[in-house]
Amino acid sequence: MKINSENLNINLRHLQVLQAIRAHGSFSRAAAELGVVPSALTETVRQLEEALGAPLFDRGQRPPAPTPLALSLLQDTAPLLAELDRAISRARAVAGLEAGFLAVGSAPSAITGLVGPALARFRAAHPGVRVRLRDDIAEHLAELVREGELDLAVAGRASVSSDITQTLLTRDRFGLACARTHRLAGRDTVNLADIAEGEVITLDHNTGTQQLLSAVPDLPPGLLESGLHADSTIAQLCMIRAGLGVGLLPHDAVALFGDPAIRFIPLGDLDLWRSLYLLEPVNRARSNVAEAFAAQLRRGVPRADAPPQTDIS
């Protein structure tokens, strides 16, 4: 928007003074309300009159009465000043975390143990902030963070991108997920050879879980592809609970629902870990709302069960 250079000599203070004089009926009362001496207020009015090229008050009257020009200017600028006041109040509310909006992405398996509790703490501290949670796979979440639709996300590692930073938050180990009625449910540990290949429910190849499993050297093919398939971890867990088969999953994914009908059993011969990362944009400053949530998120990061190791990828 192009601004007329002649208008640059008129600022917000000039208009506020004019509105105050009209509201309080005299120069002296307006000066007291604004916290300035009357001479300073008179000088501000003189500057405005000089910039406009015409008087704004009839000084032959006591108190000075606004001229038709002043009345017209007051009418035109009152809505602008009111909206500006509202905008500043809204900005202060957002800055003080009394209002605002937070868009968070999460892998489904990160919600129960990490993202959900962090959101609960955040909402307790800042109930005026609206929150939207989007669950999806890492690649989709990274794209939404990159495009600005999400402030940040928690997920497995996405494809490397210079537009996204990925900071390690926590790690959990793969194991066997099975129904409590399954033949292996009573074991403390199982080996891969104990699992019947045809009973493994596999996930979509775009999921981080399936990509990690696919990268394991010498993993029996029947544990990667079978006649049982699910598009998401949620669907896979529902199938496991129903006794349709078993799954190879990270611990926190199995604990997604806290379902006592599903058991997690450590694998004795597969040392595979899934890592969860905080995904943030590189070229966009993090808002104070996102900053506050990220702090709550880090507060809830559990201790890893083992020293960090590099994911198989």
From TrEMBL:
Name of one Pfam family that matches: LysR_substrate
Keyword annotations of the record: DNA-binding, Transcription, Transcription regulation
Single Gene Ontology MF annotation: DNA binding
Superkingdom of origin organism: Bacteria
UniProt domain HTH lysR-type: residue ranges: 10-67
Record bears the keyword rRNA-binding: no
PROSITE patterns in UniProt: HTH_LYSR
SUPFAM superfamilies attached to this UniProt entry: Periplasmic binding protein-like II, Winged helix' DNA-binding domain
Single GO cellular component term: protein-DNA complex
Family note: Belongs to the LysR transcriptional regulatory family.
UniProt-recorded name of the protein: LysR family transcriptional regulator
Organism, as annotated: Paenirhodobacter populi
Taxonomic classification: Bacteria, Pseudomonadati, Pseudomonadota, Alphaproteobacteria, Rhodobacterales
